[in-house]
Specification:
Helix 1 packs across helix 4, helix 2 crosses helix 3 and helix 2 packs across helix 4. The chain has 6 helices and no strands. It is mainly alpha-helical and 192 residues long.
Length: 192
């Protein structure tokens, strides 16, 4: 991304893209709020309880390091129970405070709000992560060049390790296709 932004666009375009993406992140953040408020009890309960179960699993196991599989499993189990329960509770509250129309509207449209919040969260994170390359492109000069040199150097080092251990040859002999030989990185030069 850095090389694309650094050499393909003038600074005015990069500044415009940065402002646009910052506004996009702000818009996504605002769009997430309704779904976040609706799902907040589920998120906090799942996080706390799954963390507790993961700590127990790590403590009682000799092979688990962080217990991420336990966290994921318990989060899924908790949300499978709590999301429908909260949906019916919120529908009842909408009926109690707003009548039939509000309850029916909430019952049918709230899942779309929550699904939209999930989608906005994913897109917002993706756009947020792209801001770093734009900032590097705007800084320009030595910082971006050093970053590119370091990236090329790391590519060479990784290729040397792959060649040294014969991983590519082993994968090709096992029938993997689409793998390129080590000379695909021959145009790279190590940093001076």
């Amino acid at each position: 991304q850095v090389s694309h932004h650094r050499f393909m666009h003038p600074p005015q375009i990069l500044l415009y893209l940065l402002c646009y993406r910052l506004l996009l992140v702000l818009a996504y953040s605002l769009a997430v709020l309704p779904g976040l408020l609706l799902c907040f009890p589920v998120l906090t309960t799942a996080k706390v309880y799954a963390g507790k179960k993961a700590r127990e699993a790590v403590r009682n196991s000799t092979v688990k390091i962080a217990g991420r599989d336990v966290i994921a499993t318990w989060k899924v189990l908790i949300t499978l129970v709590l999301i429908p329960s909260l949906h019916f509770l919120y529908t009842f509250l909408a009926y109690f405070y707003g009548g039939d129309r509000m309850a029916v509207s909430y019952f049918f449209f709230a899942p779309f709000v929550c699904a939209g919040a999930i989608k906005c969260t994913e897109n917002g994170i993706r756009v947020w992560k792209s801001l770093g390359a734009l900032i590097v492109g705007l800084k320009g000069g030595k910082y971006g060049d050093d970053l590119l040199k370091q990236r090329n150097h790391l590519k060479l080092e990784i290729r040397k390790v792959v060649d040294e251990f014969g991983w590519l040859a082993r994968l090709q002999s096992e029938g993997w296709t689409g793998l390129t030989p080590s000379d695909s990185f021959s145009d790279l030069e190590p940093p001076q």
